[in-house]
Amino acid sequence: MVWNTLEAKLSTPRMSRYLQKNQNKHDRAAEAYVHNMKIAESLVSIFHVLEVSLRNGIQKEMAIEYNRLDWYEEWNDPADADLQKLYNKIADAKRALGARRVKASPDNIVAELSFGFWTSLFNRATTNKLSKPLMRVFYSCPKSMRQPDKMRTRLNKGRDLRNRCFHHEPLLWQPLMDIHRDILEVVKWIDPSLHAWVQGHDRVASTVHEWMTWRDAPVPSPTPCQLQSAPASTCFAHPPNELSSPTDTLID
């Protein structure tokens, strides 16, 4: 039985949420899990574009602000605890690159740093020092929206959904389309042409629509074969007394 395999190999705690949300119907819960995987798959490309364009935009503006490609070295200052905390993450990235014998160049360091690092630059503790170059990243954003607090809110929601997606957590009961809209708008503020391009490859709306259509459709009645108490004879497509010819046989 599919459900027994899913529960055994993916764990009872993981699958219990899907079971609870589907009236403890195993077949429905298993199908809901498939919808969750499809939505997660469709979100990957959106998060890919958001993360790479955000970090590259920040790299560009920070290099201009500090007039050096390794701008992060300016943060190695124990006198500034907030920036030093960020630099410690960069030092971790350098060590990770070194362990793999990869050169700790600015490009490699930028790629090594996590999405959580880049979104943390928008925290209140550091935006008063970094807001000027950070806000330049979103050059197409209307002035009324180009504020650290508003960017922080959108990026944090996007990061949380990304983490749920990449850690294979349930997505079906998140405000998917609201967050999806906000993420795409951030991409548009980074570069309208990039936004237009990614829209042509975006499958989130269609996968969410498929999920909602399935979720809201009437649940079909179980067939006799799906009922544990059903007699075995009722599971044949053609009961024995309805065989099409004397040569038809039933193979055990």
Task: Describe the 3D structure.
By secondary structure, this protein is mainly alpha-helical. The protein has one domain (2-216). Helix 8 (148-166) crosses helix 9 (176-190). The protein contains eleven helices and no strands. The protein has helices spanning 2-10, 12-20, 26-66, 81-99, 106-112, 115-120, 124-136, 148-166, 176-190, 192-199, 204-216. The two termini are 19 Å apart. The longest helix is centred in the first third of the chain and has 41 residues, at 26-66.
Keywords:
252 residues, mainly alpha, 11 helices, elongated, disordered C terminus
Compose a concise summary of this entry.
By secondary structure, this protein is mostly helical.
Number of domains: 1
Main β-sheet: number of strands, strand sense, barrel status? none
Which word captures the global form? elongated
Mean pLDDT: 89
**Span between N and C termini?**
19 Å
Give the strand content.
under 5%
Our Rg estimate from Cα atoms comes to: 26 Å
Query: By helix and strand content, what is the structural category?
Result: mainly alpha
Q: Could you estimate the helical fraction of the residues in percent? A: 55-70%
How large is the count of helical segments? 11
The tally of beta strands, per DSSP, is 0
Enumerate the spans where pLDDT stays under 50 for 5 or more consecutive residues.
Answer: 229-252
What string gives the helices and strands in order?
HHHHHHHHHHH
